[in-house]
Specification:
Elements (H helix, E strand, L loop, with lengths): L6 H15 L17 H9 L3 E5 L2 E4 L6 H8 L8 E2 L1 H9 L7 E6 L11 E6 L6 E4 L2 E4 L1 H11 L2 H13 L4 H10 L6 H13 L3 H13 L2
Helix pairs in contact: 3-4, 4-5, 4-6, 5-6, 5-7, 5-8, 6-8, 6-9, 7-8
Amino acid sequence: MPPVAPLASWDMELARMSALMEPVASPSPLVRPADVGGRGPWSVMVRDGCLTPLTDDAAVTAAHPVTAVHRALTLAPQVPRRTVVTGPSAVWVHCGGRPPDRLYVGHRDGTHRPEVWAFTSVWSGRGFPTDSVLLGGVPVTTLERTAVEVALRVPPAEALRMVAALRVAGADLAAATRSLELRTRAVGRPRARTVLAEARRLEDPDALLERVAAVDAAP
């Protein structure tokens, strides 16, 4: 009869097997230079098509389609507590394209203005927390709230391009217009109303975005 292993040995073996069966925590979907040995290897992988860059220091492996969650995660380290991503930054998260040079965040009226990194704009207003969704754990204003904010605060031509992109991404511009009209105070309401109306009238917003993309890509 073979010798029986001591009980302690069986406990250790069961613990080892249990550890092997534990699900492995999923790594971050983003690939940063530090993950691959530095800026040089990261740039080579981007050049060779192994990585799809989102920003200057974050990418996704080429085998995975880029989503709004990926874009939101690139902003996560810079978003202060009790704020939400909004404005042009939220447009980029929802729609893609070229990331803005600044981070735009919103905080609720009547609360302490958050301390932020350089190149960050802080907008105040009511309802930011309730008019937001979590993408990868990062709060981002909804498509409709984002449309209202850019229509109110961004120069009209640029705002129209952004709102058209949001419409293509699924924004309900009729609901956005109703939300604008329900605000008790809205500096720039007439201009925003025009931007939203023009975006709703566009027969082919995709064609507008293609023309804008061609202009952006021109040398």
